[in-house]
Specification:
The protein is mostly beta strands and 881 residues long. The protein has a domain of 413 residues: Neuraminidase. 7% of the residues lie in helices and 46% in strands. It has 4 helices and 59 strands. Strands 22, 23, 24, 25 and 26 form a 5-stranded antiparallel β-sheet that branches. Strands 31, 32, 33, 34 and 35 form a 5-stranded antiparallel β-sheet that branches. Strands 52, 53, 54, 55 and 56 form a 5-stranded antiparallel β-sheet that branches. The N terminus is likely disordered.
Length: 881
């Protein structure tokens, strides 16, 4: 028995190890994800669903009702917040398909149901939650009105119900009925506004909203409605719970829009006893673009503040504006649109609006059975406690009813700056080979350049493209430089901090160092870029340029000559914006040092005028980097200190930056005995002494694309791309953008952003930019083979607002006497991302993080474990016999 028991334990341990090995994560200890919405759950599972409704009762049970294309109603419920659902049942409800329906749960837990039937009657009923799917057991229905086009009902916390509705005859107008006793008794209908125009409009154009204060001592009721034929929005209010009503007033009309567009879809919310928030759209109902505006009142609607623009008139037009949550002097408002809704919050205490947050995750939802994208339409949102639920129909190919949810308890974090990433979106997707992707940031904008080369490349086919992040979006890519004799390699981009972008690259055909520039505000135009010019150099082929630029336009460039006689690191400079250049001066002589090769110089300038340089030693024999070295110059590059050894290992990437009063960071990625580390070493005294290197990230057994993002102050972000393990048969890459921030004493993990690429044979690179105002943006450039066999090259962007350190709000300006150039050269930050060369997939792209060798090891170990399990089973079977 002991032997069998041991073997059973042994088998379980092996089984656990097998499962963990096959499906475990490569890296542990992630930062908090920026993902907000849970993966959607298919409720209907029929492919016929539309027009869903969701009710959350007092016990937290979710009740879903929806229609299908055969004009039947279906029901299902969930007792675990939407994770699992009861069997779908068909129910013969008294509702009419396509007519308005509304559900409200009162403080006794009863569900109050309002609907318009086929005879245009407004009907009311009450039902306990357990009988929501049993209409035959409901109370007798009560008719509130006839000739009703549309309606809206709100309920106070103390139980009062107020139903506002629009009728088309006897006479046509806006009415209100109220019940102070949970719907048990209703007062007589009161006509708020009469209009013959309501006799000719459709249900979709009959828009009315009512909002009720939850304060039993101040029973304010506010009603707003559209009169679209008049192009006007009206409002009135009752200060005493509906007993008396103030005179109806025109709230918005043609005078407010200048005659351009119609005010419509008016919404109102009473945030506290006297605080009223009013929102509306301006445009043409049904159009794809419109504006969204807001005003607030502190005195129950007697006076109003200034009009505020929430979405300008170029924005995608919401189908609805939903006040999904109102309490504690704040509102959470949701704009419903097909596919991607948006959320915005209003803080009644500070009278402040949060940034509008598109819920981009919705565009990435896919059906787990078919992998088809889910296009969420006919959206309904319900807030309960701290959760916001969305029930919607798939208007794509699936036609099912889906539910997802997120928390809204942390609404305070929605006010800028927000830590949440924008979901990745493509800037470029092409069959052309993409290489040399570069970013540089200034006060508000982020500029990007890259090279595109046709697959069947011939002389002159390569082009340099440009795009700019401005006003919260990326411009369309523009071809700015083309017709070149050789392919641009190893581009480096900088700005003088005022009005100029400076660009260098290496000509693939000749090895020449090439220079061009443009006005930064007009860099999208090819005619703005100066004709490319060759920078004089001594000998050999230039490689890996890096530069510094001061505010006056003085430029200092370092580059490597990796091979042959004359190999070393060189520096050239210009004091007249590139009209003339100083002769190249040697910074490091690799021949005299006995080095086989040298490359990858990185330069920075500290506030005392000292130049600081990192460069990498290479072995031609092994074709690998074999060390990282540092040198500095206090006389503008005339003389340099002896090369100081920083690392003796294989260094795959390095960068160096400086800021403040002598603070310098030198960072690098190295491989030592199969272990990959991302290290940072700090000097607080202008490079005279250095602290012990620290790991920025956890160590791994494979390289990762990385970038040190820097805005010239003490705000540093280390960005890296991580791949999560997934079964190889899926042919997809589950990636995440990881961010670590320097706090002044340590590196601290930040929220990360996940995304998915479906394909195989992928290569990745990453680059980032950070504006002086705190906008962080990251580009993932990749090349992968799609499932259909075509190779796609893409640049995908994501970003977020970051909290900036107040210690240094502007970049420092040091001074250095460059040979044959005036002083005051200061650094402009350039994010440079070296990577393993993959010419056939585009320069600068790294191999996938899960390498073939690791996959081979995984398969081998899998086979060994299976053999062990087989032996255990056979021995146990023999023993039992």
């Amino acid at each position: 028995m002991k032997i069998n028991h041991f073997r059973g334990i042994h088998f379980n341990i092996v089984l656990v190890l097998l499962i963990g090995f096959l499906f475990g994560n490569v890296m542990a200890g992630k930062a908090q994800s920026s993902k907000q919405w849970i993966d959607p759950v298919n409720i209907s599972r029929s492919g016929l669903g539309t027009n869903p409704h969701l009710v959350v009762d007092k016990k937290g049970v979710l009740h879903a009702i929806w229609e299908d294309v055969n004009k039947e109603f279906y029901y299902s419920k969930s007792i675990d917040a939407g994770t699992s659902w009861s069997k779908v049942t068909q129910v013969r409800y008294p509702f009419e398909v396509g007519f308005p329906i509304q559900f409200l749960v009162d403080n006794e837990g009863i569900i109050n149901v309002f609907w318009v039937n086929g005879d245009n009657e407004l009907i009311f009923n009450r039902v306990i939650p357990d009988e929501l799917d049993k209409p035959y057991s409901w109370d007798r229905s009560y008719r509130l009105s006839r000739y009703v086009l549309n309606f809206h009902v709100d309920m106070a916390a103390y139980g009062a119900l107020h139903a506002s509705y629009i009728t088309f005859r006897n006479p046509g107008g806006v009415y209100i009925r109220s019940s102070l006793g949970l719907g048990r008794e209703w007062d007589e209908a009161r006509l708020l506004n009469e209009s013959s125009y309501f006799g000719s409009i459709k249900i979709a154009d009959a828009h009315v909203r009512v909002s009720v204060s939850d304060d039993p001592e101040n029973r304010l009721v506010q009603v707003v409605w559209d009169n679209r034929p008049e192009k006007r929005v009206y409002t009135t209010s009752s200060p005493d719970g509906g007993k008396t009503w103030l005179e109806t007033k025109e709230f918005k009309g043609p005078r407010d829009t200048g005659g351009f567009g119609t005010p419509y879809n008016s919404e109102v919310g009473i945030v506290s006893s006297n605080q009223v928030l009013f929102m509306w759209q301006v445009g043409e109902p049904g159009a794809s673009q419109c504006g969204v505006y807001a005003q607030w009142s502190l005195d129950g609607g007697a006076t109003w503040g200034e009009t505020e623009t929430i979405l300008d008139n170029r924005s995608p037009c919401p189908q609805e504006i939903n006040f999904v949550s109102q309490n504690e002097n704040r509102s959470v408002i949701l704009f419903s649109t097909i596919g991607i809704p948006s959320i915005v919050a209003w803080n009644g205490d500070s009278k402040e609006w949060s940034d509008v947050q598109p819920q981009d995750e919705f565009s990435y939802f896919s059906n787990p059975l078919t992998f088809d994208p889910i296009l969420l339409g006919c959206q309904k949102f319900v807030a309960s406690a701290d959760f916001l639920y969305q029930i919607a129909c798939d208007e794509g190919s699936g036609k099912d009813i889906w539910l997802t949810s997120r928390t809204i308890s942390n609404w305070e974090t929605w006010f800028p700056p927000s830590p949440i990433w924008r979901l990745p979106s493509p800037l470029v997707s092409t069959s052309n080979i993409i290489s040399s992707v570069e970013y540089v940031a200034d006060q508000k904008n982020i500029h990007s350049v890259w090279v595109e080369s046709p697959v069947s490349n011939s002389l002159g086919d390569d082009s340099i493209f440009y795009a700019r992040w401005k006003d919260d979006s990326w411009s369309a890519p523009q071809r700015i430089i083309f017709g070149l004799n050789g392919k641009p390699l190893e581009m480096v981009l900088s700005t003088n901090g005022k009005d100029r972008l400076i660009l260098f690259w290496v000509d693939n055909e000749t090895g020449d160092l090439i220079f061009s520039w443009a006005n930064s505000e007009r860099a999208y135009s090819a005619v703005e870029w100066a004709s490319p010019e060759i920078i004089p150099q001594n000998s050999g082929i230039a490689s890996s340029p890096d530069m510094m630029v001061d505010g006056a336009g003085r430029i200092a460039v370092v580059y490597a000559v990796p091979y042959n006689e004359g190999r070393g690191i060189y520096l050239v400079a210009t004091t007249d914006n590139g009209i003339t250049w100083s002769p190249p001066s040697m910074v490091f002589d690799a021949v005299s040092a006995g080095w086989q090769s040298v490359d990858s110089p990185e330069i920075t300038l500290s506030a005392d005028g000292t130049l600081h340089l990192l460069f990498t030693k290479y072995s031609v024999t092994s074709n690998e980097p074999v060390g990282l070295f540092y040198s500095q110059s206090s006389d503008g590059g005339a003389t340099w200190t002896p090369a100081e050894e920083v690392s003796t290992h294989s260094v795959l990437w390095s960068d160096i930056v400086s800021y403040g009063n002598g603070i310098i960071h030198r960072a690098w990625q190295e491989v030592a005995n199969g272990v990959v580390s991302n290290l940072d070493q700090v000097s607080n005294d202008f490079g005279k002494s250095w602290l012990k290197p620290v790991n920025i990230t956890q160590i791994t057994n494979f390289p990762m694309p990385v970038s040190l993002v820097f805005n010239g102050t003490d705000n540093l972000h280390f960005i890296y791309l991580q791949e999560d393990e997934s079964p190889t048969f899926l042919k997809e890459y589950s990636l995440s953008i990881q961010d670590s921030t320097w706090t002044g004493s340590e590196w601290q993990e930040q929220p990360f952003q996940e995304f998915l690429i479906r394909g195989e044979d992928a290569r990745f690179g990453v680059v980032g930019g950070l504006t002086i105002e705190g906008q962080l943006d990251v580009a993932i450039y990749s090349s992968y083979r799609e499932l259909g066999g075509d190779v796609t090259n893409s640049i995908i962007n994501s970003g977020r607002s970051v909290t900036l350190s107040l210690a240094n709000s502007t970049p420092d300006s040091g001074s250095a006497v460059i040979p044959s150039a005036p002083p005051s050269i200061t650094e402009t930050v350039v994010a440079v991302i070296p990577a393993s060369p993959q010419p056939e997939l585009g320069e600068g792209l790294q191999a996938p993080l899960s390498s073939p060798s690791r996959s081979l090891i995984r398969v081998s170990l899998f086979v060994v474990i299976i053999l062990i399990l087989a032996v255990v089973f056979l021995r146990r079977a023999a023993k039992n016999r």
